[in-house]
Design goal:
The protein is an alpha+beta fold. It contains 2 helices and 7 strands.
Length: 136
């Protein structure tokens, strides 16, 4: 069977549409990584929250791979690129309803996790269990 596409882009679009239909503000929580193009001056603790309402964005486009739009920060226009893997959540600012996503480790992180698990297995093989000996 072919690999299924991620549900994340569909859910992000659905929550965004629900917010717009109900006149709610749809902020997007983004984990900034090397593929993310956002104004770095507004990034805090490796994250940025972006307003995805149509009044705050220009040329907003959702695809299965990314969210692309233009927005103004301190009056300066910026072109933003948010890969779907960087999206941590989308919700309604007014009531907090929405959806948050599990972080997806990058290839490097998943490789490091695999290596550390193998290292732990090797260490546990090397360590011998303690034994007691009766001495008279």
């Amino acid at each position: 069977m072919a690999e299924l596409t991620s549900t994340k882009p569909y859910l992000v679009r659905a929550i965004h549409e629900w917010c717009v239909d109900n006149a709610l503000t749809p902020p997007l929580l983004v984990e900034v990584n090397s593929k993310t193009k956002v104004p770095m001056a507004y990034v805090k603790d490796g994250e940025i929250v972006l307003n995805l309402s149509y009044s705050a964005t220009k040329d907003l486009q959702f695809s299965n791979e990314a969210i692309i739009f233009s927005a103004r920060f301190a009056g300066q226009p910026n072109n933003l690129y948010i890969p779907m893997e960087a999206v941590k959540g989308i919700f309604a600012r007014e009531n907090g309803q929405g959806m948050f996503f599990e972080p997806v480790p990058s290839e490097k992180e998943s490789e490091e996790i695999t290596l550390s698990q193998e290292h732990e297995k090797n260490i546990s093989k090397e360590v011998k269990k303690p034994s007691l000996k009766l001495v008279k």
